[in-house]
């Protein structure tokens, strides 16, 4: 038996706990009270629709995971916008019926019309499904990679007929710069481009420090995975590999952002979804030769893990507590070695280079136990046996995978049942390059 390389979640996080207590205390004369009710949102791309344009299943799944609202990524080419307006209307109607909340996250990479942003925000501000904070202010957010062609305050916020809690998006690594821009209610930070979990933590700590110093709430983004192979210049992995999910959740539990947004619920184009992989993708993803490079791979396990992290976050806990009837052991892995190019020339992307940052990606399978009492977990990876002594709570085991079947078992019953999970086999080479993960 081989013992997996441990990601010492607890060791790492104990160190972070110390740095949390060292954060500067809030100053007098804060611009506003930084204490907010912790809430969790999920980023929903309006451009990907659920089967039959029925949002019911997504809403019910999100509700049962403890997610408070969908932040609807809204934007698109002008010809798509009339359709998206219809989808948005259906989405709000479904949410109203199911007592769920929504708010707009304007995607400034494709939205160019400030008047449309104002109109849509005003139009839905009175909906019973509109997400509001405890003061009754409506939420509005954005995804931004540069500055939009408008001034948020004068062209948008001032024209909205009700008070707005505006959380503008940033992809900036620099918390001080973001704070100096002093935009909106507080920043919404996407996963940062740091190449390591430690680098990401440093950036998150800087945002927590700024939040505590200037009193502006902070919304952190968290993603289960990233892989994109849409075109030669949109061809990348996230250099933090598996660190952007379990490790980041544990770190954020310590840093306590005011809000957390899961990025994403359904961005199939970036393989970052936690929702069902049953969407009707948009035109780019439905062209025969570029179809489904994300493989419709099942990410159900990420959604199941979400409920435990969300519960801990909302309770202000820095560890995850699991009852015996909630125990689960999850597994996620890619279906091929990172350097194996696709074999079939019908896929044009097989002639593209490896995705950017492939060199950071390890040929690993990740075991994520959520336990009420310790257990030994076994992974047979392509017939090679591994074992992991998993402690109480959440932990992550990292195994160098072997091509073949991946079979997960345990030394005892998990939640009253024999653990025996087997996902699709890892192949030495696939017809098409595949960098998404399957999670079970
Ligand atoms: C504002 O948006 C609503 C909802 O999409 C739409 O019905 C209405 O026509 C829009 N109004 C204007 C002036 O664009
Ligand atoms: C690749 O990783 C580097 C180092 O972390 C980062 O700066 C860069 O933004 C990453 N590229 C993409 C496309 O994520």
Automatic annotation (TrEMBL):
The keyword Signal applies. Residues 1-22 form the signal peptide. Keywords: Signal. It holds the Pfam family Glyco_hydro_71. This is Glycoside hydrolase family 71 protein.
